[in-house]
Design goal:
Beta-lactamase; 10 helices; about 325 residues; five-stranded antiparallel β-sheet; alpha+beta
């Protein structure tokens, strides 16, 4: 798996627990116990930072915590703007088509203005695909909701591994804490519905041996962008958004390399033909200061993971240059 550096964090002891590789039957509780001590220390620092941000005067919260205010406080402080038309216009659409021809393979992009349930604008030939680890975001939110907004330190430790390092074993441990597979799927799907995605179905059972059931969901880019745009506006998302802002450096490609990205999560893995799909969801601040939900994906012509990463770099650069109006600065 040396080709996966930057995505699957090639630590030998965890090589089979990263995305795009089958999950070994490791005891999830053992994984949590091994890492809880260090994670708790980090989480305490984060909680202290969030408390400081919550009590700081307006405009003085740090960039790392400014998006972690409660949904209610965001709504009160938000500045309403007209919902955007096609932010890129016909010229932008033609420019994206030119990018697609230059990159080759199949690429796609979708974005929606900040808020719950706003339709997304889409571009490119690639409209949907396996969610891979991007689905860890709603799984994590579901675990927070189940804990009434107060997950235990051990759950937070699992969440950190699943979101910042894309650790499959930790994600499966979170999933198992949601109940039976059927219950876990229903709770995860309920998070999608709360975020305005009214169509995506989360499978309860394994579709491909060795891979997570939730990671094999088919998640359209438009629905994913609509969901991403809701994240700062719905309940139980603050801890997840905070972790999405702390993704490990080796996975900070694509939208992760954009200075305007507030929070993001990547997903990647091989299809049944062995060719990789690479995708990301994000909350991004565009040039006019407003925020959008963004989803991008690539099925590279050569089927290689690294080519997909390079393609997402190009798509993210295009988005930064051409998407100019998110429409809203707050929920």
């Amino acid at each position: 798996m040396t080709a996966m550096v930057g995505c699957d964090t090639n630590r030998p002891s965890l090589a089979q627990s990263r995305e795009g590789t089958p999950t070994q039957p490791t005891d999830p509780q053992a994984v949590a116990r091994q890492r809880t001590a260090a994670a708790i220390a980090r989480l305490r620092q984060e909680r202290d930072a969030l408390k400081r941000a919550a009590t700081a005067p307006a405009g003085h919260a740090s960039a790392a915590t400014s998006h972690a205010a409660s949904p209610g406080s965001r709504k009160t402080a938000s500045t309403r703007r007209p919902a955007p038309g096609p932010a890129t216009g016909s010229t932008g659409t033609e420019s994206f088509a030119a990018l697609a021809r230059r990159i080759g393979g199949s690429i796609g992009l979708a974005y929606a203005p900040l808020g719950v349930g706003h339709p997304a604008k889409t571009m490119g030939q690639l409209h949907t695909g396996v969610s891979w680890s991007t689905m860890k975001v709603p799984v994590a939110i579901a675990t927070i909701k189940q804990a009434n907004g107060h997950p235990s330190p051990s759950t937070m430790a699992l969440m950190r591994l699943a979101i910042t390092e894309s650790d499959n074993t930790a994600a499966m441990a979170m999933w198992s804490r949601l109940g039976t597979p059927t219950t876990a799927a229903a709770k995860t799907q309920a998070v999608l519905r709360a975020g305005g995605d009214n169509s995506t179905v989360v499978p309860a059972n394994t579709r491909r041996p060795g891979y997570t059931p939730f990671g094999q969901s088919d998640w359209p880019l438009a629905a994913q962008a609509t969901f991403a745009a809701s994240l700062p506006c719905i309940a139980n998302t603050n801890p997840v958004l905070a972790l999405m802002a702390q993704v490990t450096p080796s996975q900070r490609w694509g939208v992760g390399s954009m200075g305007s990205t507030i929070a993001f999560k990547g997903g990647w893995g091989p299809g049944t033909d062995g060719k990789y799909l690479v995708r990301q969801l994000a909350v991004v601040r565009v040039a006019d200061g407003t925020r959008i939900g963004l989803a991008i994906a690539s099925l590279p012509a050569d089927g290689q993971f690294q080519t997909g990463v390079n393609n997402l770099d190009a798509i993210a650069h295009w988005a930064a240059q051409h998407i100019r109006a998110g429409g809203r600065s707050g929920c």
